[in-house]
Amino acid sequence: MVNKEKLHQRFMRDPLDRRLGGLAATLGRISSSARDSNTPNTVSDLLDEAKHLIEWTAADTDSEVAAELVQIQRLITLWQKSWESVYKEKSQRILLATQAKEWSDKTLQSSGLI
Questions:
Q1: Calculated CA dihedral for residues 91, 95, 100, 103, nearest 10 degrees
Q2: Are 104 and 24 in contact (CB under 8 A)?
């Protein structure tokens, strides 16, 4: 992530529904990047960004959404820790891409934007 503080300031200016939409977009980028990326850093950076977006958003959501976001954050952390060693396996990239798409869809649904 290039500049966490700038991202935080910009992100927190948005209302909750737009923040959840932004998180869903980042999760969608993880999905497409994991499927197509030949470089592990792109996906790792997006995983890091998603963790931060969840950290900055979860406390402002209702308890059910917050619990879901925290669970996603835990799984992201596990993926991030193993990503450098598993990204070479197409099946692992597809697994992350599928999971991230599901997370994105759930988060977008929670946002109320759709």
A1: 170
A2: yes
The reported pTM is 0.92
The DSSP line for the chain is ---HHHHHHHHHTS-HHHHHHHHHHHHHHHHHHHHH-S-HHHHHHHHHHHHHHHHHHGGGS-HHHHHHHHHHHHHHHHHHHHHHHHTT-HHHHHHHHHHHHHHHHHHHHHHT--
* Tens-place pLDDT, residues 37-90: 677 889 999 999 999 999 999 999 999 999 999 999 999 999 999 998 888 888
- C-alpha 49/C-alpha 6 separation (Å) is 12
Q: What is the CA radius of gyration of the chain?
A: 13
* Tokens 């992350």 sit on residue: 96
CA distance 16 to 22: 10
CB 54 within 8 A of CB 70: yes
